[in-house]
Amino acid sequence: MTQTMRAAVLEGPQRFSVAEVPVPTPGPGEVLIRLEGCGVCASNVEPWEGQPWSTWPGAPGGMGHEGWGRIVALGEGVEGLSVGNRVTALTERSYAEYDVAGADMVVPLPASLDGMPVPGEPVACAMNIFARSDVRPGQTVVIVGIGFLGAILTRLATDAGARVIAVSRRAETLELARQMGAAETITMDDHWRIIEDVKRLTDGRMAERVIECVGKQWPLDLAGELVAEGGRLVIAGYHQDGPRQVNMQMWNWKGIDIASAHERDAAVRVAGLRAAVDALASGKLDLSPLLTGTYALDTLGEALAATRDKPGAFVKAWVAL
Question: Where are its TM segments located (predicted)?
Answer without folding.
Answer: none
